């Protein structure tokens, strides 16, 4: 799957519009052999933009009724930078339960895993993998593919920003955890040491690093650290 996924990511460079981005999302879904893959962008103005494999009728209903305002997935992702497992969210409210029931009835799987992406100029997006499976098999899948999904999410988002014509702001704002992660790496700590210092897993550390890299426009982690130092966002 790795080689095929690499081919899909490389092919993203040919996507010049929403149709091209959507085609790449479909190919990526097939690589992971899951029910659905979604890139959902919510702009600061409230406008939505998406490349996804959901049933168009469900998407139209979701958009028309502004369901993102009550969707526990979107609300959770908006307030954090780490991955969101749908099963760990609070679906106890009546609107949330109704939303989940309608989603499953519309062909969404019973499992979901979403990655929040916070970018320039108030840009916010969610990248989701959705599937039908038992809890144990889903935990194995997400555990095995978290890093790949994280990178795929940012590649898709970067391409989407280019298509939308959204530029990176000159002074990105890093979260405290992103700042801590880059500071430790700049000080020469390994990822394992940085994760231990912050008392988080290496998987979670990578989420912070990749989010910071994207905000800073870094081609890799070293480049992101250099940009952060040059802009005075981290100090040693």
UniProtKB/TrEMBL annotation:
One of its GO terms (biological process) is regulation of DNA-templated transcription. It comes from the Bacteria. It holds the Pfam family GerE. Keywords: DNA-binding, Transcription, Transcription regulation. The keyword Transcription regulation applies. Residues 167-232 form the HTH luxR-type domain. One of its GO terms (molecular function) is DNA binding. The keyword S-adenosyl-L-methionine does not apply. PANTHER family: DNA-BINDING TRANSCRIPTIONAL ACTIVATOR DEVR_DOSR. This is DNA-binding CsgD family transcriptional regulator.
């Amino acid at each position: 799957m790795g080689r095929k996924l690499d081919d899909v990511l490389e092919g993203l460079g040919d996507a010049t519009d929403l149709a091209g981005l959507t085609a790449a999302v479909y190919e990526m879904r097939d690589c992971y052999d899951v029910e659905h893959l979604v890139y959902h962008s919510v702009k600061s103005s409230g406008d939505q933009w998406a490349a996804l494999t959901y049933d168009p009728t469900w998407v139209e209903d979701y958009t028309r009724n502004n369901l993102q305002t009550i969707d526990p997935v979107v609300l959770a992702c908006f307030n954090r930078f780490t991955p969101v497992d749908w099963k760990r969210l609070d679906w106890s409210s009546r609107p949330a339960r109704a939303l989940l029931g309608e989603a499953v009835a519309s062909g969404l799987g019973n499992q979901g895993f979403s990655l929040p992406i916070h970018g320039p100029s108030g840009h916010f997006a969610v990248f989701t993998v959705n599937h039908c499976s038992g809890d144990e098999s889903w935990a194995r899948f997400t555990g095995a593919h978290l890093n790949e999904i994280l990178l795929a999410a940012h590649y898709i988002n970067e391409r989407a920003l280019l298509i939308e014509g959204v530029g990176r702001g000159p002074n990105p704002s890093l979260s405290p955890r992103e700042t801590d992660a880059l500071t430790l790496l700049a000080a020469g700590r390994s990822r394992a040491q940085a994760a231990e210092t912050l008392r988080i897993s290496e998987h979670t550390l990578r989420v912070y690093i990749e989010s910071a890299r994207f905000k800073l426009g870094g081609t890799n982690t070293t480049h992101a650290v250099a940009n952060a130092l040059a802009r005075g966002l981290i100090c040693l």
